[in-house]
Design goal:
The chain is mainly α and 663 residues long. The protein is 63% helix and 4% strand. It has helices spanning 15-23, 31-44, 52-65, 69-77, 84-96, 100-108, 123-134, 137-149, 156-168, 172-181, 187-199, 203-216, 223-229, 238-250, 255-268, 272-284, 291-303, 307-319, 326-338, 342-351, 357-369, 373-385, 392-405, 408-420, 428-440, 444-452, 460-473, 476-489, 494-506, 510-522, 553-569, 585-593, 596-607, 624-637, and strands spanning 531-536, 539-544, 614-618, 641-644, 649-653, 656-657. A six-stranded mixed beta sheet has the order 2-1-3-4-5-6, with helices on both faces.
Length: 663
């Protein structure tokens, strides 16, 4: 786009004023002004002028800030008397733009140009940073050797970059040795080694050093510290998460990076309620979120079916004009789908200007989880038709969709084409989908034979899918074989004992149910308590089985008694055979009547207006009795009930569920 002379600002007449104008050019929109000022400076300043070198440095900085790196390089190349300062400015700009190979080539060209261009203590950290980014250990070793000969290795900035380089290049031991040899350490020193160890996969050591740093109280942890420990907190212990939270709370100046790191630690470890609560506090504290913040908190919103908060975040994305941007868009789509709002998820998808494989996979997965397998398959074919290559995760999504919808032949065809056409080696997730697909279709023996011919060792999810299918189809023999394999793999996993006991219960073998319970008691295994989560206002409410801790407990139980009374008239009888407990039938009925999802449904019926959907998220698979009760309650209240358990999303309206009573 051409810019007319009349649209350019009036240029100052003096060199100093022009340099001030150059320094103010910080974006692409300022390029015409910068070029005009550059041209005027060429006229005003003779190359031998003492201020010419400073002007060239300013011009390189300005062109870099305006994302015009070729122009910045041209300024350097045209300089008759280059110095290390000019090189450093351009190398810094190339490094910031992630053009690390270009930065290293420019670094290599410095020394041959003479003493004035020799690298210095500003150059070496930049070069080491580029070595780290490109995993160039050989060059990194050469640079570090040169640094040692010049006795610059005591410089903290150089040492920090060397620590990062060794960590990123697979030498965390050398990184730690450098850290140990440092005479003076500041917060950046600690951040460098914590980050280095974390990125090298040495999570326990990183956390140990983090705790050591905090205990020393020599420097205060900062945003860099929070960002450094984040990679080590992917599957963290609860006490370590609590410790990091205490550090976060005690930070005087948190900054957005710290908030994002703490949110990510909660989200990555399944602390969804805490993630949502922290975001709400962040809003109240007046901290403006960025796209990383919102993309981090949207998955917990989806996990908890916190639709109102998710909708509010969508409005923030609109207000801050963050679209088009795949990061928040894909997260938005997942959130709506997880909240049971398939139409909203599709609206986001349809409005996207650009879509990647992740976008398509998300919407395919959404349709599959909602029981719309045919639509999921159509979307998969549309993605292929647009020339996008489905990846391993996309095949998991379409295979799962086929399983949810019982599309046996279609699923088999996709499993075959994954290997024959796309040459993707099946992973455990694909085998799990196939076992689930065969099991749901009632092909229990075929599913068992499929497992026995797998080229890789089946894990607990594969055997768990088969055991779940055996429960549905009451296949005792193969169910016992699956359970035997599971108990060898995960002897303390509660859920599989419960599934086995349900198989016995359906066959009326109460002595065996009692035996399973005895085994659990002897091993000290306790059934994971069922929990349900619902959103109301700015809060997420949690209910446990038989929970009476809620302030509205009396009203909730009164409402639940009323609902159970009304659906009994419709023929409801508690499915007592699904309960693990070997107790009298009356007690089993009482236990079932206060399951967490029933309490959550009653709570929302009390606190929301007619016509509003009831959204409940559970940490376990919903039991058959609660599923039946929810269908009948949807009929008598004329409410849509969306139950999201750990397996799928159940859309229940007027007594009919989208799962077809198979889940």
């Amino acid at each position: 786009m051409c810019t007319s002379r009349s649209s350019l600002p009036h240029l100052p007449a003096t060199g100093d004023a022009l340099l001030g104008l150059v320094a103010a050019c910080r974006s692409r929109a300022h390029l015409p002004t910068l070029r005009a000022a550059h041209a005027r400076l060429l006229v005003l300043l003779h190359p031998s002028d003492p201020s010419a070198e400073a002007a060239r440095v300013r011009l390189i900085q300005a062109y870099a800030a305006c994302a015009a790196l070729p122009a910045a390089r041209a300024v350097l190349d045209d300089s008759p008397d280059r110095t290390a300062v000019s090189f450093n400015v351009l190398i810094r700009a190339l490094t910031a733009a992630s053009l690390h190979r270009d930065a290293l080539l420019l670094f290599a060209s410095m020394r041959p140009r003479g003493a004035a261009c020799f690298p210095d203590h500003y150059t070496y950290p930049l070069a080491l940073k580029s070595c780290a980014a490109t995993s160039d250990l050989v060059l990194g070793l050469q640079i570090h050797s040169a640094v040692a000969k010049l006795r610059l290795d005591a410089n903290r900035y150089v040492a920090h970059s060397a620590i990062t380089m060794y960590s990123r290049c697979g030498r965390p031991g050398d990184a730690y040795q450098l850290f140990e040899e440092m005479q003076h350490r500041d917060v950046v020193s600690w951040n460098s080694i914590i980050s280095g160890l974390a990125r090298a996969g040495l999570f326990d050591r990183a956390v140990k050093l983090f705790r050591e740093f905090v205990a020393l109280q020599c420097s205060r942890p900062d945003s860099g510290t929070m960002a450094s420990i984040l990679p080590a907190m992917g599957k963290a212990k609860a006490e370590d998460i609590a410790f990091v939270r205490r550090v976060f709370d005690e930070m005087q100046f948190k900054g957005l990076i710290s908030w994002n790191a703490m949110l990510a630690i909660y989200a990555n470890n399944g602390f969804h309620v805490k993630a949502v609560e922290l975001f709400v506090r962040m809003e109240k504290d007046g901290v403006e979120p960025d796209e990383v913040t919102l993309a981090t908190v949207l998955p917990p919103c989806g996990e908890l079916s916190a639709f109102s908060l998710g909708k509010r975040i969508h409005e923030i994305i609109k207000r801050k004009k963050m679209r088009p941007n795949l990061l928040p868009e894909n997260a938005l789509m997942d959130m709506y789908a997880s909240c049971g709002c398939l139409k909203d998820a599709r609206d986001v998808f349809d409005s996207m200007i650009a879509r990647d494989v992740v976008s398509w996979t998300s919407i395919i997965c959404a349709y599959g989880k909602h029981g719309h397998g045919k639509e999921a398959v159509d979307l998969f074919e549309k993605m292929r038709g647009q020339g996008l290559q489905p990846d391993s995760i996309a095949f998991v999504a379409v295979l799962a969709a086929c399983s949810y919808a019982g599309l046996l032949d279609v699923g088999k065809r996709y499993f075959d084409c994954m290997t024959s056409i796309y040459h993707i080696t099946p992973e455990l997730e694909h085998y799990t989908c196939m076992v689930d697909l065969l099991g749901r279709a009632g092909c229990i023996r075929e599913a068992y034979d499929f497992i026995m011919t797998m080229p890789i060792e089946p894990n607990e999810r594969v055997w768990g899918s088969l055991l779940g299918a055996c429960r549905i189809h009451s296949n005792m023999d193969i169910g016992l074989a699956a359970a035997d394999s599971l108990f060898k793999l995960v002897p303390d996993q509660t859920g599989y004992y419960v599934l086995l006991s349900n198989i016995y219960a359906r066959a009326g073998r109460w002595a065996d149910v009692s035996s399973v319970r005895s085994v659990m008691a002897n091993k000290g295994i306790k059934k994971l308590p069922g929990a349900s989560f619902v959103e109301l206002g700015d809060r997420v409410h949690t209910f446990l089985v038989g929970d009476r801790s809620h302030p509205q407990s009396e009203m909730i139980y009164h409402k639940l008694d009323e609902l159970l009374g009304r659906i009994r008239v419709m023929g409801y009888n508690p499915e007592v055979e699904t309960t693990l407990h070997d107790v009298e039938e009356e007690d089993r009925e009482g236990h079932l009547s206060v399951h967490s999802e029933k309490l959550a449904i009653a709570f929302l019926l009390i606190n929301t207006s007619p016509g509003n959907p009831i959204r409940v998220t559970m940490n376990l698979r919903t039991c058959g009795d609660c599923h039946l009760a929810a269908k009948l309650i949807s009929t008598i209240t004329s409410r849509e009930i969306i139950l999201k358990d750990r397996n799928r999303i159940h859309h229940i309206a007027q007594g009919v569920c989208s799962c077809g009573d198979y889940w």
